Amino acid sequence: MTSQNPAFEHIVVEVRPGHVGLVRLNRPKVLNALNAATLAEIVTAVRAFDADSNVGAIVITGSERAFAAGADIAEMSGKSAADLLADVRLAQWEALRKTSKPLIAAVAGFALGGGHELVMVCDIVIAAENAVFGQPEINLGIIPGAGGTQRLARALGKSLAMEIVLNDRRLSADEALRAGLVSRVVPTERVLDEALSVARQIAARAPVAVRLAKQSVLKAFDTTLEVGLELERHNFYLLFSTEDQKEGMRAFLEKRPPNWKGR
Ligand code: HXC
């Protein structure tokens, strides 16, 4: 895929050096609001990168002013409950959640509502100094609908999650860092480069180990400690069936860099 890919109207997609797939939201007039077509394009691009053996990690970003200001309110305003129930979007959010390669969000400006939920589906979040995180759905008479209440409660604990969801409290980049929503804050003009650099580093690692590492960490968010520990142990054993485990340990003992095969 290249940035010229005519299949996409609302996003720009390209493979960056170091085996990194980049998805850039591109609806500047509405601060990258996620209408159905945009979400569908994001899912198509992410799935294609997930299946592409030339890509080891995926970065999602927006503009300097907005990562994404939420679901598209104009599109959503006339919907009925039955419309939403029949909508493919729930399945699309599930598809994003099931991405096997690492998803890294480079967030500048507003990450609100569904935009913030998109951030929280990502595995690593790099924030620009100007980033603002929040769930303002309550102002529209609704609540988050793509995981916001659940992921915030798990990530931040009850009290802060309640303030954000019930009372539109917005977090600055530094507050998000302190709360554990993001892993680093960088100057705004550096945010994409920083995310691409993290993605390149991960893409250069043993691919099967990266995949099982992601799967194992994610399990911590949706099961008991006992089940999570079992999965971790299972994945740990499984990696001893890969050539890369033999190569990684041999390379350490021979004091040379490993040459990963991805199997
Ligand atoms: C549609 C949007 C939009 C949105 C902004 N715009 N957010 N259009 N859906 N979510 C449009 C504005 O209407 C405006 O269009 C243009 O983008 C620029 O926005 P302004 O408001 O003029 O910019 P500013 O004053 O800088 O304020 C930025 C903002 C504000 C604070 C982000 O736009 C805002 O509050 N937006 C809505 C945020 C929100 O409520 N998000 C949650 C949506 S519900 P014009 O034509 O006037 O220039 C949701 C549910 C998820 O996400 C459910 C998932 C299943």
TrEMBL record:
Belongs to the enoyl-CoA hydratase/isomerase family. InterPro entries: ClpP/crotonase-like_dom_sf, Enoyl-CoA_hyd/isom_CS, Enoyl-CoA_hydra/iso, Enoyl-CoA_hydra_C. Keywords: Lyase. GO terms for molecular function: hydro-lyase activity. It holds the Pfam family ECH_1. Signal peptide: none annotated. This is Short chain enoyl-CoA hydratase. GO terms for biological process: fatty acid beta-oxidation. It comes from the Bacteria.
